[in-house]
Amino acid sequence: MRHIGAERTISDRSGVGAALLERRTVRYRWQVTGPLPVDRDPIDRDVLTLAWMARVLERACTELTLPQYRLLGFIARGDERASDIADRLALTRPTVSATIDTLVERGFLERTAIDTDRRAVRLTVTPAGDHVMLATQAALRARLDDVLAHADDRALVDRALGELAAAMVAERAARRAERHGPTDPGVAVTT
Description:
Layout: E1 2-11, E2 17-26, H1 42-60, H2 66-76, H3 82-89, H4 93-105, E3 109-114, E4 117-125, H5 127-148, H6 154-180
Antiparallel strand pairs: 1-2, 3-4
Helix pairs in contact: 1-5, 2-5, 3-4
């Protein structure tokens, strides 16, 4: 992204001119057409590739946004409280609450009161939510498979994705232990 500044003179009600600096954002479409330069830090290449892949997957989503898909997925796996989901998605509670509101309005989630805690609600995925989540998942899988079909060693990429998922789980557990203390060793931390 480049910011381009332009100066112009405007008049206020008294007729006195004032300079105003305008900021416009100019976005350039980019495409990597070959291997990334080897003289760059490989971490930069990795980060760029992951960000690019996230954008490729975002574009595959039609009925849900990627954050909505992730949220539905966590709820379907058993997370029922917005605060737990916010922690797992590394989002603020207001952001998660707004996304939940949207999904409830669209009929993809249902809120029910928890008998033992008047302040808390249980979130459940509706049949319509299941349908749209599975359709989105199929679209994401198809797009990922399209990209991975061009990998020289698909099995290597699959193993690397598994390693990345395991590293993310371990990193999340370490962050949580720093904030809340170590968890019970008998409790597994999942993605």
